[in-house]
Design brief:
The protein has 422 residues and is mostly helical. Helix content is 57%, strand content 1%. The protein folds into two domains: 86 residues, Annexin V, domain 1; 217 residues, Orthogonal Bundle (Annexin V, domain 1). It binds 2-acetamido-2-deoxy-beta-D-glucopyranose (4 copies). The site of one 2-acetamido-2-deoxy-beta-D-glucopyranose has 2 residues, from loops.
């Protein structure tokens, strides 16, 4: 069997995964290690992954061996496993995922398959958000009601967890600001990830995506993530450098794959999104915050977001660099997702049609809208399922052949690499 055929098989398998509920990679690994055949195959894959992190270029035979090992996993639950966004041993889980899928990570970043479970299959906790928000809109802060970002912070302050984790990252990220020594960016990033992972989305979403009418509010919104420490460097690095540092890190690589999958733009769609899952796209965007590829608002006066990097002086890599930057700067799906989050209230009243695409409503837990929104999100999910089964024969290549997401790093870039005898 030639490598092209092998790859085709792999891809068609990967396609089936999208619709199935998947198992947890940590459990799947344990299961595999207790079976001697699976164990041996898994060890081979570990070596393949190891060789790649050491940047040893694999010869043709090794590539085929690694691909074969992936195929040998057959219908083992390992091949289908995913990780939860809020799980305990997340990094361990992600390492397993990338070990199993190491053959897909050759060279360029091309992944559209998220290691994370579809948010619709994840548990969502009930929160006291609406109760606390009602307290704030009650009376004492009437003057502040004009600044939705300030108001969102007030609501956060009323929740013990939100208050604590926000204070945590704020103090880490502002340490050293203004003085000679620089802040500890890694710690700041960890603090931010902690905040966005552990605080219920009702709080984090309203803080980060508060709708602003003026620049004072916009400045507060832009500064939510303490950009002086978490976002800006002295000079803007090249976006490809930023990408490289992201791919070296299991968390960042995973978040980027999740972002690429869930915020993938297409032209011929009312909301600009391939998957029409605004909740998942929003979550994926927030997942990038606290990674080396942290995005943020570009100014106090707009909702445009970008990365802190440039594609100047990229030479013959300019096109690829623009693709990376374009995922954030000119991504219709992301723009529409952020816009509809900011206008959620008005939209719910005025434009029921658009609700079809905003299943994020189902996470609001607002008792008044629960039944409506869950009905809506069922429709939206049904649509997503159909869309993913339609492309199931070749999910990663679909964007190439449909011409839909031409501005995205695509499989076309990576096929020649994988198959070239080295
Ligand atoms: C799995 O592989 C490791 C390393 O090759 C070996 O030490 C271990 O005994 C194997 N376990 C089983 C259950 O085969
Ligand atoms: C796939 O799973 C079924 C049981 O679910 C098993 O009987 C079969 O042998 C497995 N096939 C492979 C190739 O592992
Ligand atoms: C929230 O709490 C922080 C930390 O005590 C405080 O600095 C801030 O002013 C509070 N913000 C609001 C809007 O209540
Ligand atoms: C807006 O952003 C700039 C920095 O880019 C800052 O100097 C300015 O004070 C901000 N605030 C307002 C209200 O314009």
């Amino acid at each position: 069997m030639g490598p092209a055929l092998l790859l085709g098989l792999l891809l068609s398998r990967a396609g089936d995964l999208m619709a199935l509920p998947s198992s947890d990679c940590v459990m799947a690994e344990q299961l595999c290690l207790s079976d001697s055949t699976c164990n041996a195959t898994y060890r081979t894959l570990e070596n393949c992954a190891l060789a790649k992190t050491r940047l040893l270029s694999l010869d043709h035979d090794s590539r085929v061996r690694c691909l074969n090992a992936e195929l040998d996993l057959g219908n083992s639950s390992l091949l289908h496993c995913k990780c939860q966004r809020r799980m305990k041993r997340q990094e361990h889980c992600l390492r397993i995922f990338w070990t199993v899928h190491s053959s897909m990570t050759d060279g360029y970043f091309n992944l559209e398959t998220s290691p994370y479970e579809n948010p619709a299959n994840e548990e969502h906790w009930k929160t006291d958000y609406n109760k606390l928000a009602a307290l704030v809109s009650g009376s004492q802060l009437a003057g502040d009601a004009t600044n939705p970002c300030l108001r969102a912070t007030h609501v956060c302050n009323l929740s013990k967890k939100c208050f604590r984790l926000r204070t945590d990252y704020a103090s880490i990220c502002t340490k050293g600001a203004g003085s000679e020594d620089v802040c500890d960016r890694r710690k700041c990033h960890r603090g931010l990830r902690n905040f966005f992972e552990k605080v219920p989305e009702d709080f984090t979403k309203t803080i980060l995506f508060c709708p602003c009418q003026d620049e004072l509010c916009g400045e507060r919104r832009r500064k939510t993530i303490v950009p002086d420490c978490s976002f800006q460097y002295n000079t803007k690095p090249n976006c490809l450098w930023l990408l490289d540092s992201c791919l070296e890190d299991h968390i960042c690589k995973s978040r980027l794959a999740d972002f690429q999958q869930n915020c993938q733009p297409v032209d011929m769609s009312p909301d600009g999104c391939f998957l029409h899952n605004h909740a998942a796209c929003l979550q994926a965007y927030m997942g990038m915050i606290g990674t080396p590829m942290t995005p943020n608002y570009v100014s106090n006066s707009s909702v445009e977001v970008s990365l802190w990097c440039t594609c100047e002086n990229s030479g013959n890599q300019k096109e690829k660099c623009d693709q990376i930057l374009g995922m954030f700067e000119s991504n219709k799906c992301l723009e529409n997702t952020i816009w509809s989050q900011m206008h959620l209230k008005q939209m719910a009243l005025e434009r029921q049609e658009d609700l079809l695409y905003s299943s994020s409503l189902s996470f609001q837990g607002d008792s008044a809208s629960t039944s409506l929104s869950s009905a809506m999100s069922q429709v939206a999910e049904g649509k997503t399922q159909r869309d993913s089964s339609k492309q199931s024969s070749m999910p990663m290549a679909s964007s190439v052949f449909s011409g839909a997401a031409t501005s995205w790093p695509s499989l076309a870039l990576f096929l020649p690499l994988l198959l070239s005898p080295h």
